[in-house]
Fold each of these.
Amino acid sequence: MSVSSDGTTRRTYLDHAATTALDGRVLEAMMPYLTTEWHNPSSIYIESQGTRRSIDSAREKISSIIGSHPDEILFTSGGSESDNLALRGVLEARRGLGKHVITSAGEHHAVLDPLEQLERSGVADVTRLPLQRDGTVSASDVKNNLREDTVLISIMHANNEVGAITNISEITSLAKGYNDRIIVHTDAVQSMAHLPITIDNLAADLITFTAHKMYGPRGAGALYIKSGTPLAGQIIGGGQENSLRAGTENTAAIVGFATALEISSQQRDRDLANERALQKMLISELPRRIPYLGITGPRDLDKRLPGHVSCVVGFVEGESILLALDLAGIAASSGSACTTGSIEPSHVLTAMGVPQDLARGSLRLSFGRNSSVDDAQELLLKLPKVIERLRALSPNIMEPSPDWTEWF
Ligand SMILES: Cc1ncc(COP(=O)(O)O)c(C=O)c1O
């Protein structure tokens, strides 16, 4: 926390991978649909026709940015719903033709948990690949695990905890070369907020998106469904979204999502340069200033989300660091927001091979569009003191175990 010239205290937000503030321009675009243009887009009167046109034009805007056909975009409530729909929808549509699914052990829980449930109920037979040391998934691992009965592959594009970017188009081409009926799904929730995602550069059949990581509203997202992909709807009871997702459309959220994506693609170069510079600053300074701190995720920045920094800190618990940083005015995360509060070491770090005791000291710092050098400096000033204090309180500081050293 720092005190500004007007005497107010300033909080430093370093958790943009968890969610982002609604952009004022997005709010402005959404306002009419929350106030005057609130009509049901499925009704026949003139007001509803206007609302319907706004949804159609949001769909066209998103399609033209990612290079899809408008009919291939299905609006959902966000990343979790799109992931669930992709997995459950394909397995239901492919029932009787095979139930083998390949995924990685480092996926988001919105993929891991439905697959675990589908496996328990006998619908899926799941192979979970380990992550490579840098957090990416190896295409040859996928290739070596393909089977006659493989129907679905679900591998995320960029990992939310360590920012590692996996080459999805390589996985798709290996899978289709083996059997062109295999469906490839990727969760691009984290990458769409930073990178120029197109249908051509990902080459997947199903792609999960969400709006709230790119200054859009929470509760809005989409699933890209390549034309011809077999998929059974999971929310039924209405004809909306091509009968694949029943429920009156959230026009404001849909318009907000399209506006957020448009703004983010227009100012991507500027945002990216800022986020990369701040990321580089922490990646080089943190290990220099804090003993027994290792950066996790890819060293090669081309394989890493811009603005994303993750690390492990020996001899401290991630939760204790977060609480101390919070008191010092800095909001950060130990991994994904969804695992905060859990004392289990991160499943992503353990899938990468980080020793369990070291993985408990994980920290994720994620910059965004409005982050500044002051934010990075604030962290560089406060974090070493926080770690030193926590280590001094700990009764059992020992020598690092030999299996830690490769992570520093
Ligand atoms: C990789 C990934 N997938 C899915 C989700 C869930 O998205 P939503 O919050 O829109 O449901 C998140 C959110 O943290 C995420 O990081």
Amino acid sequence: MLPELEDANQYINSKISIIDNRILEMEKYAIENNIPIITREVAEYLKFMLNIHKSKNVLEIGTAIGYSGSIICESIKVNNGMLTTIEINKETYEISRNNFEKNNITNVKSYLGDAVDVLDNLNDSYDFIFIDASKGQYHMFFEKSFKLLEKDGIIFIDNILFRGYLYKENYPKRYKTIVNKLNKFIEYLYSNHNFVLLPFGDGIGLVKK
Ligand SMILES: C[S@@+](CC[C@H](N)C(=O)[O-])C[C@H]1O[C@@H](n2cnc3c(N)ncnc32)[C@H](O)[C@@H]1O
């Protein structure tokens, strides 16, 4: 989350009531085990976008424990929608499989592997793509998934402002490469795509094809 927005986010979160116990349980597990998941206000916005866009065929890069995946599956169920989700880490992949099964979520196809490779082998097309994995590879994920995106489709990129490091002078120098890559990626998106950058959550990028 962008540190500048902490108060606003706290306020928004105090207004969001999550009544689904399955979601709450996953959220609790993620916090206790230090697993990064989308924040509540980003989850609300993601649901809103899926709803107004009437998304049916969604691709997610970065499943983790299936938290955002479960939210997506529930949101697109009304459209008979299906989620395809990719995770590189075997342990979290297995937790996500278990969560989907335990929570009776059946409209999901999960892949274990590096999205860089998996994306090359997907034959379907998608009307909504959610990118939420390693930030240093965002440009590559974008290029590969844009090819799979249908006309009028949307790509939703989370954490694109990387804790605000992109516009701060002082940030841990070990992140320099990622910061440079993300800055170039944003310039590329502005110059070549129908793109909007929202200073919200940890920064959200939206592209419409
Ligand atoms: C921020 S977490 C995803 C959180 C999840 N979308 C949620 O909100 O519930 C990022 C995930 O991306 C996975 N990941 C990182 N690089 C990846 C890659 N190259 N291919 C597939 N998954 C990757 C990580 O293992 C991690 O579980």
